[in-house]
Amino acid sequence: MLTIGQLARYVGVSTKTVRVYHAKGLLPEPERDSSGYRRYSAQAVVELVRIRMLADAGVPLARIRELSSTDVLGPALEQIDADLTARIKRLRETQRRLRMLAAGDIRILPANVEAHLAGLAALGFTQRWIAMERDLWIIVYATHPDLAGTLFEDQAQSLTDPELRSLYLAADHAHDLDPDDPSLTELADRIVAASIERYGTEPPGASVDPAIPDLLQSTLNASSPGWQRLDSLIRSRLADAGFTFRTSPDGDERE
């Protein structure tokens, strides 16, 4: 028979923790013996080990009490095991990224996205446009990892179409145009027409919260009166067409 101090030492917890488990109804509190001490049996050690293992796994104390029944313990342990597996996977991924950061390798985007960005210059895009794309893809992959792959594949595929690629290039070079240049109006009309032909009125990723991409877009607009005018024309025409209003991964709501 063990005292509360011996029980706590054997299991690796404090006596205060044991008393908390008593108060929560997780561990039965034995009666005092003739000497005034509470004495714990081997069964108490087994129960305390079980409670500690569940608590270490992140199971709330209220939930541990519910698991005292063997009817629910098995399925619950399977779910706890699955949750731990998922948590370990996330921690290993975090560890991998930290090691990359420590080694000076701070790549955030997947290899296929990096390859895509590396090939944009050969297609005629400016470094300014490529930097914009990189920033926005970082945002999309960080905030919507479940949708980022689909959105990226859609944009990458659109660049294989010569007509769509010409629209991207024209939007890139609109940076240097005067905001009153009539070619901006024509370009906006072409972009909106291509968007509606490709997607109807709801583009892929319509459920993505546009707040952060919109912030980036506003920053880009501030750098170029031409881009600001083009963005305004596109938004106006898309709204008139009933287009689902979301910012796209290339930063100007056309694809």
Word description of this protein:
The protein has 255 residues and is an all-alpha fold. The chain folds into 3 domains: 68 residues, Multidrug-efflux Transporter Regulator, Chain: A, Domain 2; 38 residues; 130 residues, no CATH class. It has 12 helices and no strands. It holds the Pfam family MerR_1. This is MerR family transcriptional regulator. One of its GO terms (molecular function) is DNA-binding transcription factor activity.
Topology:
Layout: H1 4-11, H2 15-23, H3 42-56, H4 61-66, H5 70-102, H6 111-120, H7 127-143, H8 145-158, H9 162-173, H10 182-199, H11 211-223, H12 225-240
Helix pairs in contact: 6-7, 7-8, 7-11, 9-10, 10-12, 11-12
Domain HTH merR-type: 1-70
Keywords: DNA-binding, Repressor, Transcription, Transcription regulation
Pfam families: MerR_1 (PF13411)
Q: What does the radius of gyration come to?
A: 30 Å
User: How many helix segments?
Assistant: 12
Order of helices and strands: HHHHHHHHHHHH
Structural class: mainly alpha
Task: Categorize the overall geometry.
Answer: elongated
Largest sheet: none
DSSP strand (E) fraction?
under 5%
Please report the distance between the alpha carbons of the first and last residues: 74 Å
Average residue pLDDT: 82
Total discrete domains: 3
Give the low-pLDDT segments. Answer: 246-255
User: What share of residues is helical?
Assistant: 55-70%
Number of strands: 0
